[in-house]
What we know:
Layout: H1 16-25, H2 32-41, E1 56-60, E2 65-68, E3 81-87, E4 93-100, E5 103-105, E6 117-122, E7 127-132, E8 141-149, E9 152-163, E10 170-177, E11 180-190, E12 195-199, E13 209-214, E14 220-229, E15 234-242, E16 247-255, H3 265-352
Parallel strand pairs: 1-9
Antiparallel strand pairs: 2-7, 3-4, 3-8, 4-5, 6-7, 8-9, 10-11, 11-14, 12-15, 13-14, 15-16
Amino acid sequence: MLPPGIPEQTEGVFPAWRRQSAVRDKGQLIPKCGLITLLFLQLPEPVSGAGDASEFHLAPLGGTAKLLCPVSLWPVTVPDVVRWLRSSALGRSQAVHVFRDGKDREEGVMPEYKGRTNLVRDAGAGSVTLEIRDVRMEDRGPYQCQVQIANQSREGTATLQVAVLGSDPYIHVKGYDAGWIHLVCRSVGWFPEPRAEWRDPQGRVLLSLSEAHLDEAGLFQTAVSSRVRDSALGNVSCIIHNLALGQEKTTAMAIAAPSPEKLSSSAVALAVVLPVLGLLITVGIFLIWKQRRSKENLLSDHAKEKGNSVYRIRGRLHKTLKKLRNELKLKRAAANSGWRRAQLHFSKSYQSH
């Protein structure tokens, strides 16, 4: 006979049970704490390696994280003490949650976890789970679980990672080449690494090249590039998936239908550049002609002004010379008249004598 509360399928797991039952049948009783300790020690060892990806627990940002302690308990066994610890900024382990003597305790618990944690014990499965509500980015990292039953204890490690839905995708037109539109889609703030893809207007996945890297906050920045024909009709979509959360974000860009007489990019460029270039050349020639004409007019005006000045000087000189000639004629006439009078006077005087 197995003790009450121990399932029948456990018979054979512990061969010592039949020997213990035989002893008890003879009137010898096994202390309760010794029985629990025996059960605790007979359990399989927990898997070690806290850094293993299989022991990572993902929780959405702002949601509730559930960390299963990797230490197995015998069904219906109530542990005396359960401690969940994690390393603080000072480098020493501090309590996140403490269960002792059948009650949750807040003594020694890190202030940032008070009121946000809960211990869930599944007696049937023999497990203890730590729940953390309102998950923050700072909650990421390893947690150490310590379970004590009687004078025996075991411990294990579970790692929490926060799943984050990043920013809305941003589409950038990188360039245009021979009828192809080159597109780049970017988004930041994702965890774990997202899956990014482009889809054409018919919903088919386009051939694309994606890259992702971690930023200083430990979150992923992703960029995915592709190209589509300029003759495509409808919307092309950039979709970024967070597979852990089962959520995605999408941004679409419309491609307008091309007109039948649509020219190539080089023809459009020539059609725009050539008239502008011609206008610039015409304006340049006009400005050069106007500047030269202005210089010619200036020189002509200067020459005219100089000629007029010379003409005025010549006129004044001519007038002065004419005046001098007239004065000279008058003086000569006066001199001749005086000379004749003198001759007449001398002639009369001679005759009288």
